[in-house]
Amino acid sequence: AQSDEKAIIAKLHQDIVALQGSESVAVGKLEKFKLKLQKMEIHNLRLEQKLDERDQALYFARLEGRNRTKHLQQTVQSLRRQFSGALPLAQQEKFSKTMIQLQNDKLKILEEVQHAQQERRNAENRALELELKLKSLEELVSALKDTRGAQKVMEWHMKMEELHLQELKLSRELVKQKEEVKYLRNIISEYECTISNLEEENVQQNKFHEERQMAWDQREVELQHQLDQYDHQRTEILSTALKLEEATGSVPDPSLPIPQQLELALRKIQEHIRTILETRATCRSLEEKLKEKETALWKAEQNVISRDKVINELRLRLPATSGEKIMAELSKQDDSEYHHAIKIAHQTIANMQARLNQKEEVLKRYQHMLAKAREEQEEIAKKHEEDIRVLHQKLDLYTDNSLNKFKETALELGKKTSVSLSISKYFHHLEQTVAEQDNSLASLVGKLKKTSSDLEKQKQITVSKINEFETIRAQLQEKHTVDVEQIKEEANELRKILSQKEKELANVKAELEVQKEANNRAPTATLKNLVAQLKSQLAIKENQHKALSKALLELRAEMTANAEQQIISAASQKEAYMNVQEIVDRQTKGLTTQIEELNNQITKLTDNLKISKNKETSLSDEKDELNQELQKKEKAFAKILREKNEIEKENEELKNRIRRLSSSIQSKADEQNLIDVLQKKIKKLESELEKKCEETEIKSLREEKSSKEEIIRWDEGKKWQIKMEGLRNKLREKEKEADTLSKQLNTLKEIYTKIEKEKIALQKKLKTTGVTVDRVVGIRATETEKELEELRKRNLELENEVAHMRTLQAIPRDSVVEDLHFKNQYLQEKLHALQRQCSRETFLRPLTSGIGSSGQYRREQEVLKENLRLSSENIELRFQLEQANKDLPRLKDQVDDLKEMCELLKKEKAEAERKWGNIRGAGRSGKTVPELEKTIGLMKRVVERVQRENEELKKAPAVVSNEKLLGLEQENERLKSDMEKMKFDLEGQLSVRYESKTKGMEKLITENERLRKELKKEADRGEKLRIEKNNLEILNEKLNVQLEETIKKLNLAESQLDGADSRSWKSIVTRMQETKLKEMETDIAKKTQSIANLKQLLQEATEREHNADKNLQDLKEQIEHLKHLPEGAGTEQKMIKELQLLRLTNNQLEKEKAELMHQLEDYRHERYASTSEHPVAGHNEAAEKDKIDRLMTEMADLQTQLEASGLEKQQLKEETEELRRELETYNPSFFEELEDLKYNYKEEVKKNIILEERLKQLYEEFGIQ
Questions:
Q1: How much of the chain, in percent, has pLDDT values that exceed 70?
Q2: How confident is the model at residue 1061 (pLDDT cuts 50, 70, 90)?
């Protein structure tokens, strides 16, 4: 027994040793497997990291590609916007060629003019020489006759010495002046060099600044990318740490028996091997995907390069709208991932655009400064040249005089020596010299006749050219009238569409009200759908209405621009007698620009139509969102209407105030005080505007703004830009007028100097003439009186024409018309007063034709002219100020309207976001956030319960079968996977929400920045306008001062004339000058006739336009009449549609009634069942009773609604019958008239096409494009 027990003990010991060995082997294997597992996990993590890095690289590459494409598209769009309306390169080249040709022609003409002037000067110099010779001869004759020969020789010798001394002095002064001129020219060249160097430095600095800014922006983008990478790495590290913790936490419990522990370890090892194999397979698949993505990336890069090339090629071909469409499609296709990159790109673009604007402004300033400096230099050079000319002339005269005197002295000395010579021979010699001089004078007279004949020929050529240009102008005016008619027809068509849309809107609103009443009674699902459809339709119609109103406004703006251009052309025609060729060139250029502008406007209108269509499509997608916001919009609409009425009242009050102010201004005499008051008012209004702008900025920072606000703001910004451009154009025109006035002043000064010279010459010649001064002055006075009367008549005619043109083609505003009437009345009163003064002075003046009286009369006439011109300029400035004051309150009102609109839209947006919050609560699974949280909580409980069961099973004996364990583990895994899925879903939903919120905030920030920039720009523009206004006032003052100076000079000249000698002889030169004067008078008469003809043509054109307007108005009235009459057929169809809709609603209501009855029965059954099962639930019974009562009341409401719908049916039937009767009463002649109108319209279109073809032919003939 002992041996058996020992044997058993030995066996047991052996078994224990074997088990211990196997246990140690198993432990070693376990450790090896753990190490392998850890290595594999590390390898997996590394691979995952690499994969993530490559994904990130791919993502960033895509982002960069998209950003580049968007940046390029935006640059293309900005370039298109910049060069929208610009001519193509071919046309620009042609225009440049024509301009160069014209400039060359102008230079040639100027050279010819200079040559003619030089010839004239030479002739005058010769005439002076001859006069001097004559005088010298006369003096010689007188000396010979007198006995005092020696004394006269001594006198001549003294004079010669004096002249010689003067000559020496003048030569010294000439040398000094030449040196000064050289020095000044050197200084000017140095200044020019310094200016060019500074400009180059400025450009370089700007470039350097731009490069630094670009580098800074790139650096910001890179840093942001790095931040995103670091965040991604952090999340990866956290996930790996969690995985490692899970891996280490899966060690079997040491409290369990060894075999169970071994089994658990083996199972875990098998699971790990499976996971390793799965991870390897996934790694392979991921590597394959990576290769595929790399290839795709390479292809995408190649595509991007090819697209870049295509974009560069098709940049000029694409129209402006196609780019916008592409942008819209891209924005639709873009995912939510790329919004952050878009925001960065937008910010960079905005910064670049701001910098560009700043640079443009700086460049403009420098250009302006350069132009001013050049003008000043040119003026200084001209003055120096004039001074030098005067000095040269004086020198020539002195030299000639000295030479003549020297000859005379020599002759006398010769005579003294040869006293023995006979006097008869000497006289014979003198007669020969006189004969030679007569011959030379005759030859000069012949030359003058030839020149006069040449001048007459040139005049005939100019007259023929003027006639040709007048015919061209008439043709162009006809074409312009045709274009205007076409535009008016388009406007009428748009108005018709607007009226139709308004009618449709009214019908839809009526339908909506009916549907609302029905909804208030019983809002069923079908009725809600119908109401939603109607609301969406209403929204579409409203948008269409807005688009059409915008188009109409643009048309009006274009019409006003055309009117302004026509007024400018009328003003330029006043200067026709100065230079006919230049006027014709300007008119042709203006007309070509007008045609191009009209074409551009047509393209813009078509683009606007396309945009409106795109908007309609986008709005149809947004129907469901706008259904809920319709009621609030209607309330806002009512508020806006009230506010509009209030604003209209305020406008009327302001207009009345303006009228009072204008009347008070006219009554006042002190103009400067008035201007100061107006300036103060403008400053106050500007300060108020700035305050309001600051308030709007503060409000915009606090409140959020939607995408609709962006669109509205963009449109408003465009409108403001257009208005500001219009104001700039007006300012440029005013500057041009100021330049022309300054040029006129310069010409007047030159004429004055010439007249002074002529006066001096005449004074010298009058000594030799036999006509008295009184007669000459009398003739001059009569000529000046005639010229004055002609000028007055011309002024009156031009003012009447201007007033007529403005009343026809000005903006249809009461205030502008009143201003023009006031202006005309004021001018007429002034003219009448001046005429009375003239008549009184003529009566009061004595009949004696003296020098002093004629001089006074001339002075008074010139003063009157100057006063007239100054008063007209002052009146124009006043009217400009009044218009500016009138525009300011209107602009204020617009700003207030925009603010109110912004507030309303903000409120709507806030409400929409609330609704969206409720709607977006539902995620991808279709459940809301609280529901998902509940499900997660339930899943957690289930998981905890399963874990408890697992632990109990672990603690339980080894009897539990392996199958149960496996099943439980599978369930555990499934539940874990479900938990992970739910977590992922929740995380995705939360991330989407967070992203949407952040994007909304970013959008709002960008909007605020953009609005701030716009406000700053507007403030800068206002300041510029103020500065320009001040400059104009300064210019006016300068002109007044110059006028006063010229009047003083004239007075001095006339006083010099009064003190002239009464003795005068008549010579051949004076006769020549008189003939020249007569020729000049005939030229002036011809020019006045040509101007009168031009005026008649203008009047005829205006009459034609007036007749065309009348015809258009008649047609409009007929169309409106037709619109009101044939509504029978359309209304009948509408009634049928409404009946069908009512039938459908009745059927749906009946179905709902049956469903409700069925539900009532179900409720009753449930109640009886609940009472039988639970007799205690009294509270539930009371609740059910309440529900039943509510259902009964709903049933009663439905019945009343059905009855009301039946009554409405009957009413609609009666209305349809009445409409049918009305249709039957119409005559067939009515429809025949309609067809006649259509036929006439087609014929008019054909005529227009024929006229356009003729115009093209004319353009080709004259080389106009």
A1: 63
A2: very low
Per-residue tokens: 942: 């289930």
Q: Cβ neighbours of residue 353 under 8 Å, at least 6 residues apart?
A: 78
Q: Between the CA atoms of 154, 158, 164 and 168, what dihedral angle is there, to the nearest 10 degrees?
A: 160
Longest dimension (CA), the chain: 205
pLDDT at 1157: 72
Task: For residues 1137 and 1140, give the distance between their C-alpha atoms in angstroms, rounded to a whole number.
Answer: 5
Residue 632: is its pLDDT beyond 70? Answer: yes
Distance CA 526, CA 1148 (A): 7
Residues 232 and 239: their CA atoms lie apart, in Å, by 11
Cα gap 119→450, rounded to integer Å: 13
Query: Does residue 104 surpass a pLDDT of 90?
Result: yes
Long-range contacts (CB closer than 8 Å, 24 or more residues apart) made by 320-325: 320/77, 320/80, 320/81, 320/84, 320/607, 321/607, 321/610, 321/611, 323/73, 323/76, 323/77, 323/80, 324/77, 324/611, 325/614
What single DSSP character describes residue 847?
S
Q: Taking Cα atoms as reference points, which of 412, 433, 422, 417 lies closest to residue 139?
A: 412
The answer to whether residue 354 scores a pLDDT higher than 80 is no
How far apart are the C-alpha atoms of 290 and 296, rounded to whole Å? 10
| Secondary structure letter of residue 845 according to DSSP | S
Which residue do the tokens 């969206």 mark?
Answer: 916
Cα separation, 747 vs 683, in Å, equals: 38
CA-to-CA distance for 1004 and 1011, rounded, in angstroms? 10
Compute and round to an integer the Cα radius of gyration of the chain: 50
Determine contact, residues 989/924, Cβ cutoff 8 Å: yes
Give the Cα separation of 19 and 258 in Å (integer).
Answer: 10
Sign, CA torsion 1136/1141/1143/1146: negative
Mapping DSSP to helix (H, G, I), strand (E, B) and coil, where does residue 666 land?
Answer: helix
Measured CA to CA, the distance from residue 858 to residue 777 in angstroms comes to: 10
* Per-residue CA distances from 1054 to 855, 1051, 1060 (Å): 6, 5, 10
> CA angle 15-18-23, nearest 5°?
120
Q: Three-state SS across 1149-1205? A: HHHHHHHHHHHHHHHHHHHHHHHHHCCCCHHHHHHHHHHHHHHHHHHHHHHHHHHHH
Please report the sign of the dihedral spanned by the C-alpha atoms of residue 782, residue 786, residue 788, residue 792: positive
pTM score, two decimals?
0.20
Q: What is the C-alpha to C-alpha distance for residues 799 and 517, in angstroms, rounded to an integer?
A: 63
What SS3 class is residue 849? coil
In which residue are the tokens 């098998």 written?
270
Confidence bin at 52 (pLDDT 50/70/90):
very high
Query: Residue 575, SS3?
Result: coil
Quickly count: other Cβ atoms within 10 Å of residue 315's Cβ: 14
Residues 6+ apart with CB under 8 A from 15: none
Residue 338 per-residue DSSP state: G
**pLDDT bucket at 772, cuts 50 / 70 / 90:** very low
Question: What backbone torsions phi and psi does residue 644 show, to the nearest 5 degrees?
Answer: -60, -45
Q: Phi/psi at 1177 (nearest 5 deg)?
A: -75, 75
Q: Which amino acid is at 38?
A: Q
Contact in structure between 508 and 541 (CB atoms under 8 Å): yes
Q: Is the pLDDT of residue 107 over 90?
A: yes
Q: Which two tokens stand for residue 259?
A: 């075999």
858 with 1054: CB under 8 angstroms?
yes
CA 443/CA 451 separation, integer angstroms: 13
Outline where 769-850 has alpha helix (H).
773-809, 814-844
Contact 817, 810 (CB under 8 A): yes
